[in-house]
Amino acid sequence: MTLDIQKIRNDFPILDREVRPGVPLVYLDSTATAQKPARVLSAMEDYYRLHNANIHRGVHTLAEEATGLYEQARSSIAKFIHAPSSSQIIYTRNTTESINLVAYSWARKNLQSGDLVILTEMEHHSNLVPWHILAAEKGIVLEFIPVTGDYLLDLDEYQKLLTRSPKLVSFTHMSNVLGTINPAKDIIQMAHAAGAITLLDGAQSVPHFHVDVQALDVDFMAFSAHKMVGPTGIGALYGKKELLELMPPFLGGGDMIKEVKLRSFRPNDLPYKFEAGTPAIAEAIGFGAAAEYLTSIDMDQIAQHEHEITNYALQRLEEIPGLKIFGPAARHKGGVAAFTLNGIHPHDVAQILDRFGIAVRAGHHCAQPLHEKFAIQATSRASFYLYSTRAEVDILIEGIYRVKEYFD
Ligand code: C6P
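Above: inputs. Below: predicted complex with C6P.
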């Protein structure tokens, strides 16, 4: 069975719009943020129209309904990544905050000066800067798994780094620039064999293929709702219970406590221990609706569709003289195509493509060290999702030829 893409596109109201009169939107920037289906929009609107109340605080009907919806969403998200229990899903604002939560809570408690943390050269800034901050504060040591000329992680070098007894290995499941899908299960197994804890940045994997935290045996995983057809302002940290139980709270305030005295407090149980203050309730409900929507379509089918579209896009892009794609062979790659076009600045490429309604991103994509590694400052990046079509790839290719004509 293949996906009915037109039917899927009908679920996303924004895909019908024109960027300007007569110029339909060709949205190829889902790696930055995905579009939202009507089911997510109406779940959030229904909450505000019918159930708006604060959660975990009231006994009145609306408060109970709101709490029910908020917790039901947590269960949907837990199921989506096959977490053993919904208490292991901590709501955060996004992937960035989830990684910071681990850095501020788990790492501050467990890491000392001289302890080794292994990252990779293909990390997003959100999996670099929290560790830079900790290195400056506590003297932890950072090392990086190199990226090979084939745009893959160098696992031999990783094996060598593991002999130095790291405490943590934190890495991205899929690069937001190269599209490289890293062999997470092997990397995690190797880390565990060396006695290290693992943190997986799932920002680009969870939305695009089935990620099972128990099969991976990962210790922590960070991801964002907005990249998986959910709203902005909400994400999650998954963690193993035994680790989360021993971690001190990250932020203090309402809801994260069991009891407060003038001079002390007792933290709440999981997951509330990490959720201080009134949370993003509507967004959490939208996040749950997004997980249910993607499940209803089938993650394996989505991955298959993206793989086909990406293969097609890579083939067509490779035909264009002067265009260089940064990323591995298609079998290692998710739905991202970052490229440079001989002598034309990536921002100019993106700006001219916008005249044809084509939305792509240009810049370093919050992965400056990776761009430096390949001696470039920026790339243009087209990215694909469940609603992307071959026809859109054709419009992109046509647009790139027009960019070339303009500059030639
Ligand atoms: N990448 C992109 O255009 P937040 O912003 O916290 O939801 O996600 C951060 C993040 C972390 N890891 C990876 C691999 C990511 O791709 C991102 C977000 C977007 O590539 C915005 S910079």
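The domain at 41-296 is CATH 3.40.640.10 (Aspartate Aminotransferase; domain 2).
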